[in-house]
């Protein structure tokens, strides 16, 4: 009987230890599940932030392309204006004295610009 009582006490002790271990394991599992949820939330937030950044980057690139195109147009217009100014300066330096000569120069300038 004593041997059986000792065996029962030993088994009860083992069961208590296993229950404590199971309780710790459940607590660990709960903590891991909470951490997993936190990481998933963080991942979703990070993806949303990345999507916003990528959209902003695309918008910025589009604006840069548009600005480059406008700059190119402005540079072309500036070159044409500089050429026109040079021609008129030459006409003034060549002492164009009559309106007829000036009209002829303007007509030549227009024809030159049209052929470009």
Describe the structure.
This protein has one domain. It is 94% helix and 0% strand. The chain has helices at 2-93, 99-115. Residues 57-94 form a coiled coil. Residues 1-16 have a biased composition (Polar residues). Keywords: Coiled coil. Residues 1-24 are annotated as: Disordered.
Q: What is shown here, in short?
A:
With 116 residues, this protein is an all-alpha fold.
Report strand %. Answer: under 5%
Cα shape: rod-shaped
Structural class, judged by helices and strands? mainly alpha
Instruction: List low-confidence stretches.
Output: none
Number of domains: 1
According to DSSP, the number of beta strands is: 0
Rg of Cα set: 44 Å
Q: Helix proportion of residues, in percent?
A: over 70%
Largest sheet: none
Along the chain, the helix and strand elements come as: HH
- Summed over residues and divided by their number, the pLDDT gives a mean of 90
Structural features:
116 residues; mainly alpha; 2 helices; 0% strand; rod-shaped
Topology summary:
Elements: H1 2-93, H2 99-115
